[in-house]
């Protein structure tokens, strides 16, 4: 057995696993072999903001068996830090650095551990903890009411609800892809609120709702107006009111890194007059960076239909974040927060102002950012970002864990999933950790069941349009989806269910992941499964802030517990094609099964692609063997 010099997950060796508040004391202990002849021992601490490395002497504390323990205490100020250890003997100096399994080894070439220190005033909305997010692509959820408003110019209205979203782009045209509309609206969402409540939903996340020429509406034409196909401003207010009456909050998609080229702000086609590309004296001119006015300008990822905004422009900042700006306007009308599109492309000055405005208007409004990597140490545009230190975002979309869940369920790598979860726990403040958006599919990715069911994706959109799972392939993909959902619903954070996943919707990437909800043609067995998962979340308080405790994780098998004081929930997942028998402690007799699973005394049988959930009904004197 390898000697463990340091492990940040061990409370003996590090008093707090994870991020800490500014001013909070962190105790570090280093374990050294008693015969190593140590002279001096140090904690090396590097501040990320300036690279300054400080050395903190560690003093001998006690001996236990063949190990010596050295300690030091540090009070941190706000920021990001990196640490390692060094000890000296009569022979040399030795560095102890981080290995892939978090533990320390004697090596000068390893990585430093991360210590996140966030503002002592950092608070995030408690209402989202333990909840369930439901993401809706508004045009494709449900059409409510009978009267359809006049269709704005350039749009194609579809009458074949459930048809394949248009994926063809006529040669030489740049505007037609994404202009087919099926007519989903606010009234439709309102009609389905009882359905959402039955799923256990506590928060609706709506893809963009503001006036725009495309069905995805990420090319905003007017931040002040609801897209007429969705309804009116009054309809939006009514939706928020009725959602609140059903215990459901509503968050909006804020697209602030770019606008549409046919917006009133840019006005490339002279529809409005006074836009940056149609009027040299436009009040919006400073929002955009022109290389040559009016036809050459910076655009989002080079897409000329999406002119990029200069987010630090004083006029734009005031328009979005000001006292009567866009953020406050829609919160006043009923919204409970914002999901920020491409948050890593928004500069710090904008995010600082955004948080100040949102929290001043409603301290309980949530700010959720789209960041695809580890948001605690993300570098974008040449600088380290400070999303989660307390002055910008409340939380982010949990892409690292989403990818690890799908990888484990599809390929079998339990250790990678556990280490990914533990890395997030290590790096993120608990305030953001417990409200992470745990998705496994969104409007930007293939449907989860499709991702799990295909070993390779067809390469072209034309090929993808004509392929779907069926027969045994579909049956197997459904079983894998259930395993992914169990993990999504039970790991730290808040599960985000992409509309229709619970009904068995399939689809590759954009636009096929944005199909119409199959009302009347749902996979009823899958739907009941998701309802049961939602009920379990609603009834289980420890999902709000409970600890994650891995028990067994090897290859195809993952077993962990969520713990909070005396409450415990055991989760076991077998993604292999063989049944697995797992020995468990006698104390499990005081656990009740939340799903049907086979248990005989101390032996749990997990069927192929099977899982088990057990909740402790009473504490026992005997502690499990994995303590």
What does this molecule look like?
With 627 residues, this protein is of the alpha/beta class. The chain has 4 domains: 20-118, Immunoglobulin-like (Sandwich); 142-256 and 308-539, Alpha-Beta Barrel (TIM Barrel); 258-307, no CATH class; 542-616, Golgi alpha-mannosidase II (Immunoglobulin-like). 21% of the residues lie in helices and 26% in strands. It has 13 helices and 34 strands. The strands form 9 sheets. Strands 24-21-20-17-14-11-26-25 form an 8-stranded parallel β-sheet. Strands 1, 3, 4, 7, 8, 9 and 10 form a 7-stranded mixed β-sheet that branches. The chain has a 5-stranded antiparallel β-sheet with strand order 27-28-29-34-31, covered by helices on one side. Helix 7 (399-411) packs antiparallel against helix 8. The radius of gyration is 26 Å and the shape is globular. The two termini are 19 Å apart.
Short description:
With 627 residues, this protein is α/β, with parallel strands linked by helices.
Structural class call reads alpha/beta
Q: Over the alpha carbons, how many angstroms does the gyration radius reach?
A: 26 Å
Most strands sheet: 8 strands, parallel
Q: Strand order, biggest sheet?
A: 24-21-20-17-14-11-26-25
Question: Could you tell me the strand content as a percent range?
Answer: 25-35%
- Care to count the β-strands? 34
Named at the architecture level, the CATH assignment of the largest domain is Alpha-Beta Barrel
Tally of structural domains: 4
């Amino acid at each position: 057995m390898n000697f463990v010099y340091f492990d940040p997950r061990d409370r003996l060796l590090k008093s707090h696993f994870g991020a800490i508040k500014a001013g909070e004391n962190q105790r570090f202990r280093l374990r050294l072999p008693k015969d190593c002849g140590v002279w001096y021992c140090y904690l090396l601490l590097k501040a990320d903001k300036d690279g300054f490395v400080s050395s903190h002497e560690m003093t001998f504390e006690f001996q236990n068996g063949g190990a010596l323990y050295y300690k030091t205490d540090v009070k941190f100020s706000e920021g990001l830090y990196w640490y390692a250890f060094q000890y000296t003997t009569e022979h040399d100096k030795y560095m102890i650095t981080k290995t892939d399994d978090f533990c320390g080894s004697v090596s000068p070439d390893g990585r430093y551990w991360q210590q996140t220190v966030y503002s002592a005033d950092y608070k995030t909305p408690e209402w989202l903890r333990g909840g369930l997010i439901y993401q809706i692509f508004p045009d494709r959820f449900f059409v409510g009411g009978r009267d359809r408003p006049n269709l704005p110019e350039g749009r194609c209205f579809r009458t074949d609800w459930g048809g394949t979203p248009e994926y063809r782009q006529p040669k030489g045209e740049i505007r037609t892809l994404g202009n087919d509309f099926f007519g989903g609206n606010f009234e439709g969402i309102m009609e389905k609120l009882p359905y959402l409540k039955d799923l256990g939903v506590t928060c609706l996340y709506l893809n963009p709702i503001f006036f725009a020429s495309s069905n995805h509406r990420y090319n905003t034409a007017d931040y002040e107006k609801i897209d007429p196909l969705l309804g009116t401003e009054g309809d939006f207010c009514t939706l928020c009111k009725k959602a609140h009456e059903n215990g459901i909050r509503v968050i909006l998609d804020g697209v602030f890194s770019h606008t549409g080229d046919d917006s009133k702000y840019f006005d490339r086609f002279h529809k409005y007059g006074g836009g940056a590309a149609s009027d040299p004296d436009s009040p919006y001119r400073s929002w955009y960076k022109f290389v040559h006015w009016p036809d050459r300008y910076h655009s989002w990822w080079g897409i000329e239909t999406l002119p990029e905004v200069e987010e630090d422009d004083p006029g734009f900042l005031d328009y979005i974040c000001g006292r009567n700006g866009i953020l406050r306007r829609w919160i006043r009308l009923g919204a409970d927060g914002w999901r920020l599109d491409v948050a890593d492309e928004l500069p710090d000055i904008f995010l600082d102002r955004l948080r100040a405005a949102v929290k001043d208007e409603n301290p309980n409004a949530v700010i959720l950012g789209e960041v695809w990597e580890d948001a605690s140490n993300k570098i974008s545009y040449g600088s380290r970002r400070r999303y989660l230190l307390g002055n910008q975002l409340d939380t982010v979309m949990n892409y690292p864990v989403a990818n690890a869940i799908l990888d484990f369920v599809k390929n079998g790598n339990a250790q990678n999933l556990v280490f990914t979860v533990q890395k997030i726990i290590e790096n993120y403040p608990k305030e953001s950790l417990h409200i992470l958006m745990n998705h496994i599919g969104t409007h930007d990715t293939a449907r989860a069941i499709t991702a799990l069911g295909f070993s390779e994706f067809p390469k072209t959109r034309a090929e993808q349009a004509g392929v779907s799972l069926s027969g045994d392939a579909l049956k197997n993909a459904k079983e894998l989806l259930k395993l992914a959902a169990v993990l999504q619903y039970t790991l730290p954070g808040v599960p985000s269910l992409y509309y229709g996943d619970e009904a068995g919707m399939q689809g590759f990437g954009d636009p096929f992941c944005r199909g119409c909800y199959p009302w009347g043609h749902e996979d009823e067995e899958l739907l009941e499964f998701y309802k049961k998962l939602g009920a379990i979340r609603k009834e289980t308080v420890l999902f709000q802030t409970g600890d994650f405790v891995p028990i067994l994780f090897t290859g195809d098998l993952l077993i962990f517990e969520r713990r909070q004081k005396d409450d415990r929930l055991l989760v076991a997942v077998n993604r292999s094609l063989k049944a697995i028998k797992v020995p468990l402690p006698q104390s499990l007799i005081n656990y009740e099964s939340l799903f049907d699973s086979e248990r005989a005394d101390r032996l749990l049988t997990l069927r192929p692609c099977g899982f088990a959930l057990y909740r402790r009904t009473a504490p026992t004197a005997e502690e499990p063997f994995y303590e």
